[in-house]
């Protein structure tokens, strides 16, 4: 696998509308929910992998890991910048973010480093599926242009580095039990925090649960994202011979970006 290319993103998010996906409050809340998780989550990934870098003896994988750290740092900063838009829209997000960080840090501190690494590897598989879906389901075409640029950039880099954490984990231990423990860890934390963040935002939009469920059914018919990420993702990950590069996505982002005349930012 080629070494990922860290790129910076310079986008002014001021003026992004409150409903930036197909004028849908629910679809926007679901996406904003995971956006809230990214800054802390990306930094957790970096911490988890970096603790094992001295045990990686392959110089190519070490270079890939260092590039992965830079990409994730850029992603964290970009999504923190977008969170200011949520505040400008009147959302109270800081209380949730403080609780999320406190709980996540408490769990991280009590988990063995190997489990945090394995959880990162599994989380990167889930985010790679999200990234692949962004380019294949038509989702990006429904998004406000500035947010389209943010998500296309993030998705492209997720596909570039999707195997790095897994390869570091494999270089440390090829234990199947460790891999599955990380999968359980990642599924519970990502699913739980994503649901909590989305619920916080939907409550502030004062959308009734009947309306939410109706719109969720419509969204599921267009893109069953939960089944695609968690059900399909778990089914792939539990195969003993699984590797993230089993899903061929190397040219996917490049084709979409070229077709939409969008250039990735210059390397930082």
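-> sequence recovered:
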């Amino acid at each position: 696998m080629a070494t990922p290319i860290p790129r910076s993103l310079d986008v002014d998010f001021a003026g992004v509308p409150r409903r930036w996906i197909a004028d849908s409050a629910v679809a926007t809340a679901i996406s904003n929910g995971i956006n809230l998780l990214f800054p802390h989550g990306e930094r957790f990934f970096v911490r988890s992998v970096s603790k094992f870098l001295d045990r990686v003896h392959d110089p190519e994988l070490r270079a890939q890991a260092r590039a992965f750290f830079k990409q994730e740092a850029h992603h964290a900063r970009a999504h923190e910048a977008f969170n200011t838009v949520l505040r400008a829209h009147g959302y109270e997000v800081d209380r949730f973010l403080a609780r999320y960080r406190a709980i996540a840090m408490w769990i991280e501190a009590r988990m063995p480093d190997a489990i945090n690494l394995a959880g990162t590897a599994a989380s990167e598989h889930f985010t790679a599926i999200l990234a692949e879906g962004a380019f294949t389901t038509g989702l990006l075409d429904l998004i406000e242009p500035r947010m389209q640029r943010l998500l296309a950039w993030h998705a492209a880099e997720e596909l570039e580095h999707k195997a790095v954490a897994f390869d570091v984990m494999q270089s440390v231990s090829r234990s199947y039990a460790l891999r599955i423990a990380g999968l359980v860890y990642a599924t519970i934390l990502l699913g739980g925090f994503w649901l909590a963040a989305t619920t916080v935002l939907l409550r502030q939009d004062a959308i009734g649960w009947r309306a939410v469920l109706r719109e969720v059914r419509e969204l599921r018919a267009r893109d069953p994202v939960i089944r695609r990420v968690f059900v399909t993702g778990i089914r792939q990950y539990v195969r003993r011979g699984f590797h993230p590069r089993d899903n061929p996505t190397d040219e996917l982002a490049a084709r979409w970006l070229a077709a939409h005349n969008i250039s990735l930012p210059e390397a930082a």
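The mean pLDDT is 91.
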